[in-house]
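Ligand: fe (ii) ion. Inputs:
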Amino acid sequence: MKLSAEQLEHYDEHGYVIVQDVFSPEEDIDPVIEEYKGVLDNLAQELYDSAEISSLYEDLPFSERLIAIYQESGKVHAQYFDFSLPQGNVKPDTPFWAGPAVFRMLTNESLLDAVESILGGEIYSNPVQHVRLKPPEHLTPVNEETGRVQLGKTPVHQDHGVVRPEADETQMLTVWFSLMDVNIENGCLCVWPGSHKRGLVDHCPTNLGLSVPGKLLEGKAAPMIMKKGDALLMHKQTIHASYSNNSDAIRWSFDLRYNPIGQPTGRPAFPGFVARSRKYPETILRKPADWEQLWRDTRDHMAAVQDESNFNRWTKDNPVCA
Ligand SMILES: O=C(O)CCC(=O)C(=O)O
Ligand SMILES: [Fe+2]
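Predicted complex:
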């Protein structure tokens, strides 16, 4: 879906825009939900076989089943579902899911039309990307060491802050959407409108992840209340966070990134691909299995070399982190 002049103006002015009905909930999103049912089946079977859970919980709907499995195993199995790898300690059998329905979302034509409105017609799928299945916080297993939930709200940050400096000039666009309706109660995102005009601000490493210290924030955050089928497009310097999931069901989202072909992704250890090229259409990656193979090869390589390179530039020594 191409952006209108008003939507582009909103993006330039505020650093984000919510585009309604980019996807068809039934035709685009439901197949993804269906595919992850199989992933959850696999996880249940593995945990059952290793006696970490006492039931497959087969009769429960997806959200309740995921919650039950996480609760009984005492663990949030986020990596099992993600279409990315961890930033360190990758093993030959580190799980991930890069299935065909996921690939079809990353390469959805309507989505790429929206992305093209901002980046132009030479579009690279940047590998900084995640699926996030967040259980309700009151039902999420706690990390014994920190006493906090294993997966909760996302701290305040800029996406520019989570990539390596070589991507400082990269025009990286974030696309966030949920596979369900989201609101403040179930943990939608919030953004600080106009914050992209401040450039890159300092981030501090915390045990919740990289975070912009509260004293650096200016103005109020706006909640990104969205429907299944909508997409949020965000500038890489727009400051944002998520609310906690205080509902009784999971909050399920994708966050994807794109940049013009040829610019550094900021995460060179991970594989991207040409999602659209008006100039060289023969370079487009079209087969879901080829995409999955890129991640398999990356996993093999990372497991073999145990790369210690940094994924970001921030240290706790920065005085603003004190
Ligand atoms: O979904 C979330 O909780 C965080 C997402 C995010 O930070 C992003 O999409 O850049
Ligand atoms: Fe982010």
